[in-house]
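Re: beginner question about structure tokens

> Can someone show what the tokenized structure looks like for a real chain? I only ever see the sequence side.

Sure, here's an example I had lying around. Input first:
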Amino acid sequence: MQVKKVIPSGYCKGVISAIAAAKKARNDYPHEKIYVLGMIVHNTYVTKALEKYGIITIDDKNKTKEAALEEINEGVIIFTAHGIAANLKKRALEKGLIVIDASCTDVIKTQELILKRLFEGYEVWYIGKAKHPEAEAVLAISPDIKLLTDIHNLPPKPLKKLFVTNQTTMSVYDIADFQKGIKELVPDALIESEICNATAMRQKAIMDLKDCDLLYIVGDPVSNNTRQLRNIALKSGIKKAVLIETAKDLNSEDLKDVENVYVTAGASTPTYLTDQVIEALKYYDEKGFLPTLDIDINAII
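And the corresponding structure tokens:
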């Protein structure tokens, strides 16, 4: 059995930058309480690793970000890689908090593009995932932005000129389907794809695989870019594409009669976890059974 790593895969520049910002905050403010409003990147093990630094993640699904922010009255607040609404950043400053914005530069670029088109008089349609923090930050910009989540449920044709863009971690296949449907409805719509380069490259690497019997995608199930890698694999003709969080999720049943197994990872997946999966698969190929591997949280970031 051949075990191969898909290149590129794993951490993107936005994730690296966000994690570095959190670690720097601990060094710069050693005596302050430090909070992250939401998961700094969508990986539970990164969140656990930050706890080792005394960095507290505030991610209560039963509370809005606004409500969660109101409960923080001192210290440092870090906004995540997915972007943040301007009103939340303003409120944090009003409360006297030390503000660190770890927003990915690609996300900021999309927000600035949307603001530009709104100023030019466009109605904006935004292709994204409901309740995803990147989409939530965009929707907070203006009530003139409509979120598109279903190609079969597009809004009515707008009365004014239309601009369409998207969440940076969407599938290239899904975006193409949306764009085709929108062009049929509004032929003169201005459409600009904002799938980030890291996402596009990782998806293309999977689309280019020719001899893959089984693909493991390592990542957190809450990560949209990780789930999209699996969708891309299935749409590209890879019959077995399995999403796992760690090597502990490997199943010997999946490996029966497999000659070529590839391993990729979501953009928020620590390299340590991906390497463990590859190590376990190579051990299986040599010994015939999967090893028991413990996860060292200190090695995550």
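Each token stands for a local structural state, so reading them left to right follows the chain. The mean pLDDT is 97.
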